[in-house]
Amino acid sequence: TFFNRNEWNEVIAREIAAIERIPELNPQHWTVINFMRAVFEKEGDALSIRRLTKESGVDTKTLYQLFPKGPAKKAARIAGLPKPKGCI
Questions:
Q1: What CA–CA distance (Å, rounded) separates 88 from 27?
Q2: Residue among 28, 30, 31, 87 flagged as catalytic
Q3: Is 84 helix (H, G, I), strand (E, B) or coil?
Q4: Is this prediction's pTM over 0.85?
Q5: Structure confidence by residue, pLDDT tens digits, 60-78
């Protein structure tokens, strides 16, 4: 990330999403983003796509629709988190 993670907020998330060509963050986006942030706070690691699919309640197909071309990496970036391990 290009800012202090503790300074992250929804305005910053929307700005990053716009850079990532996601014009609007809907409730499902926020479900994924907030879930990733909660797990990161507890465990210190960003989630992989597999774990995100299993534990967030959002299936893989939907994740790719919400965050095209690399949902775990893109969602982590918008959430103000480092990219998940295993992401290129």
A1: 27
A2: 87
A3: coil
A4: yes
A5: 999 999 999 889 999 999 9
